[in-house]
Design goal:
CATH architecture of the largest domain in chain A: 2-Layer Sandwich
Structural class of chain A: alpha/beta
CATH topology of the largest domain in chain A: Beta Polymerase, domain 2
Number of strands of chain A: 6
CATH superfamily of chain B: Cytochrome-c3 Hydrogenase, chain B
Strand order of the largest sheet of chain B: 1-2-3
Shape of chain A: elongated
Largest sheet of chain B: 3 strands, antiparallel
CATH class of chain B: Mainly Alpha
Structural class of chain B: mainly alpha
Oligomer: heterodimer
Number of helices of chain B: 17
Chain lengths: ~200, ~400
């Protein structure tokens, strides 16, 4: 597997999401951390009643470094002949967060489902959600150090990254000068001579 | 006793009141995997439930960032291991959107994708149905459900080559066309399905013991369902007819006729009935797709920058050999940008937020796992219920821990 041997991707200095016009069916907005709460509250009042997902991405070459991404869903439930008909719309709110501050306002009071999602972003990216009632690691063990989904976190973990994989041939064999079969060159030549009847 | 912000531990015993803390799992058989629930209980009644997850965390999102776009699909299929094709379908649709190939996918490939996705849904619901029955002591349904699933896995093996993780989807189409004899087996399954569903409904849906255990247990009303971001059958059992196949159609779902089963009770029995009805609706779609499958056609996009040329041409054409070598050795590149793509998986809205930096590896893949959000709703659902009913509630939410923990 050659692909796992390569170093982690350095990333672009620019912001990949901003490089293209939107290609999916969501409305996309980018807000500053100060305006985030107000925008999400307004979106909820506007009918985006479901927080579908809350995730993050790390762009080490860019300022601000992290993106917290909110996926919202509007389900208007106007009922025709008794059955609620959903005419849904998606909204994606991106918010850039600096590494130095790394603080994001929580939305657990707006949507209860943000609880685990925010814990996961904290666990894997190290962003702190101010006001979260129970902010602790969720996927990794509690005593874990580091934030695995950051781009500067090595794929196999810091401990294993320091010690490279053992070489193909064992060191003891190489030092003793024996071929992998355990027989020396001289012994082989002896055997060939014997087979030819030279001795 | 106050529970936050310190986590619950078995050592904590309340001094006031009669509540004690009990750890259920992570090796409990009814948790369908490795779920631990820290329970604060008063007698037999749950006061507070705090699910602890992460026991199956394997870093799939991190692993995928270090693989080629096509290699990442193999680890992505291992998230929801009961419905691997739904995961793969969602991922390839997202990558196709980034590549702007969505409109160029061959019609036959889309049809077979729909067929595979719906068969996967039935197979996944069969596992849920069998294990949900066993949780409540109904053994027979398990064997009928798993026998039906086995027929579908045979079809998966025939088309993709493997029972559990077929890896049949490809960016740009499919791995290969349906093999000879596939349609005969599919016809046999279509023939067998209604009778088998009648048996299963007879064994469980009409069973008074089963009804006693599930009716009015784990009620999730509409407000709570929205608050906890519940999707899929649990949301529809609470009365909201949201289905990604209907709301944001993909793979040509708009041309198939199907209903979205809904209930309003929002209890475990409603979720049970909604899933059973969904299996019937899935088979209705399968029958419609089956009629279109006699018409032959290409199953892979004709674009050598994304899809390796057919094996037969490699021996004859220098260009074909070069394209094949490039795609195998360094993958294909995807223009920079981000996209959110969702499909209706067996458990709800399964979404991928994919970011590309223009390279031959995904820059970031964030999964929106339906099981994670559905399971989280247990926190709102469990208080006030009996411990024995927790088993019913977990079963009715149908979590898959490969997906919850990733």
């Amino acid at each position: 597997m050659p692909s796992t041997q390569t170093p982690p991707i350095a990333g672009l200095a620019v912001d990949p999401p901003s490089l293209r016009p939107p290609i999916d069916d969501a409305t996309i907005e980018r807000v500053s951390p100060d305006a985030l709460r107000a925008r999400l509250e307004a979106a909820k009042a506007d009918g985006y009643t479901m927080l579908l997902d809350l995730g993050a991405a790390d762009y080490p070459q860019r300022t601000p470094r992290f993106d917290v991404v909110y996926h919202l869903l509007r389900l208007s439930t106007e009922s025709t002949n008794g059955k609620p008909i959903a005419t849904p719309a998606r909204l994606r709110v991106l918010c850039g967060i600096e590494l130095e501050s790394a603080h994001v306002p929580t939305v657990t009071d707006l949507w209860k489902s943000a609880d685990w999602a925010e814990r996961e972003v904290y666990d894997l990216f190290g962003l702190i959600f101010d006001g979260h009632p129970d902010l602790r690691r969720i996927q990794m063990p509690n005593e874990w150090e580091g934030y695995p989904l950051r781009k500067d976190y090595p794929l196999r973990g810091p401990a294993r990254e320091k010690s490279p994989r053992p070489p193909f041939a064992l060191k003891s064999n190489v030092q003793a000068g024996t071929p992998p079969t355990g027989r020396t060159l001289e012994a082989l030549q002896e055997q060939i001579k014997r087979a030819r009847g030279e001795q | 006793m106050s529970l936050s912000p310190t986590p619950l531990t078995p050592e904590i015993v309340s001094q006031e009141g009669n509540s004690i803390v009990l750890s259920m799992g992570p090796q409990h058989p009814s948790t369908h995997g490795v779920l631990q629930i820290m329970l604060e209980i008063d007698g037999e009644t749950v006061v507070k439930a705090e699910p602890e997850i992460g026991y199956l965390h394997t870093g799939i999102e991190k692993t995928a960032e270090n693989l080629f776009w096509s290699q990442a699909q193999t680890v992505i299929e291992r998230m929801d291991y009961l419905a691997p094709s739904s995961n793969a379908l969602c991922y390839v649709l997202a990558v196709e959107k980034l590549l702007e190939l969505t409109d160029r996918i061959p019609v036959r490939a889309s049809r077979i994708r729909v067929l595979t996705a719906e068969l996967t849904r039935i197979a996944s619901h069969c596992v849920w149905l069998g294990t949900h029955g066993i949780d409540l002591g109904a053994m027979s349904a398990f064997f009928y459900a798993f026998d039906l699933r086995e027929n579908i896995l045979d079809l998966q093996e025939a088309s993709g080559g493997a029972r559990m993780h077929p890896n049949y989807m490809r960016v740009g189409g499919l791995n290969g066309d349906l093999p000879d004899g596939f349609l005969v087996k599919l016809d046999a399954l279509i023939e067998k399905f209604p009778g088998r569903m009648k048996d299963l409904r007879g064994l469980l849906q009409a069973n008074p013991i089963f009804q006693d255990r599930t009716i009015d247990v784990g009620i999730l009303d509409v407000e709570d369902a929205l608050q906890w971001s519940v999707t899929g059958p649990p949301l529809r059992a609470s009365g909201i007819a949201y289905d990604v196949r209907r709301a944001f159609p993909y793979c040509g779902y708009e041309q198939y006729e199907f209903d979205i089963p809904t209930r309003t009770e929002g209890d475990a029995y409603a979720r049970f009935v909604v899933r059973l009805d969904e299996m019937d609706e899935s088979m209705r779609i399968v029958r419609q797709v089956r009629k279109q499958l006699d018409e032959p056609g290409p199953i892979m996009i004709d674009d050598t920058k994304v899809a390796a040329p057919p094996k037969e041409t490699i021996a004859l054409s220098m260009e074909a050999l070069i394209h094949h070598f490039k795609i195998v050795s360094e993958g294909f590149r995807v223009p920079p940008g981000d996209v959110y793509q969702a499909v209706e998986g067996p458990r709800g809205e399964l979404g991928y937020y994919v970011v590309s930096d223009g390279g031959n590896r995904p820059y970031r893949i964030r999964t929106r796992p339906p099981s994670l959000y559905n399971l989280q709703a247990l926190k709102g659902m469990a208080p006030g219920n009996l411990i024995a009913d927790l088993v019913v509630m977990i079963g009715s939410l149908d979590p898959v821990f490969g997906e919850v923990d990733r």
